[in-house]
Amino acid sequence: MKNDVTLLINAGGESTRMGQSKALLPVLPMGTPLICYVAARLRPLAQRCIVVANDPALCDAVAPLGAICLPDAHPKAGPLGGLATGLRQIEGWAMCVACDMPMVDSAIFRFLVDLALEADVHGAPRWDAIVPQVNGRYQPLHALYHRRCLPAILSRLASGQRRMDCFLPDVRLRLVTESELIPFDATLVSFANINTPEEWERFVERRRDA
Fold first, then answer.
1. 197: number of CA atoms within 13 Å, CB side?
2. Pairing of strands 48-52, 68-70
3. Of the candidates 39, 97, 152, 160, which lies 20 to 30 Å from 45 by C-alpha distance?
4. What angle do CA 200, 99, 142 make, to 5 degrees?
């Protein structure tokens, strides 16, 4: 499993609502940068780690992890551009996650990888994208994508589309339902992200109470 998967962390956002770089917020008790904390939770599942970021400070932060840090080749295209940037560098599957999702669960991603490796009766791959759906919404920044998705993504970008899920109708999608996820995370907290100082403080309090 590990040899087939790259951890792809999308960290190209500007953190406007946070007022400072989300990816560098210190996670207690060691003050680990948030992006490194997220990476450490998933890194054992992947052969390599790619971080898409335009901030040199983020590249410096992830360097001890052996991560490859890439500038976003589509800096005006949001996370979809970051996904395209990362997929260009791999041949197989990417575990795509945002840098601001501190409660990601490796057990869920292990389940998603198992789904990704399913084959049809002829031994051919069944899926190009494995995407959870929570509260009726796709979770495209907590998902798996094969490099086979790249042409569809580039086509959408060329037409001016930027929604992270806009290309999903163009690929073989395996939608993962809440009922499939709940055995791994009963409250589905794995999909929560941190966008504001208030959300960060709630996460800090959760860490203190753990």
1. 2
2. parallel
3. 152
4. 105
Angle at 164 between CA 158 and CA 167, to 5 degrees: 60
Contact 24, 34 (CB under 8 A): yes
Query: How many angstroms separate the most distant Cα atoms in the chain?
Result: 52
pTM of the complete model: 0.93
pLDDT confidence of residue 210: 63
pLDDT in tens, 58-93: 999 999 989 999 999 998 899 999 999 999 999 999
- For the record, the structure tokens of 183 come out as 């055995």
What pLDDT score was predicted for residue 16?
67
Domain range list for the chain: 2-209
CA gyration radius for the chain?
16
Q: Say which DSSP state 177 is in.
A: -
Break the chain down into helix, strand, coil percent, rounded to 5: 40, 20, 40
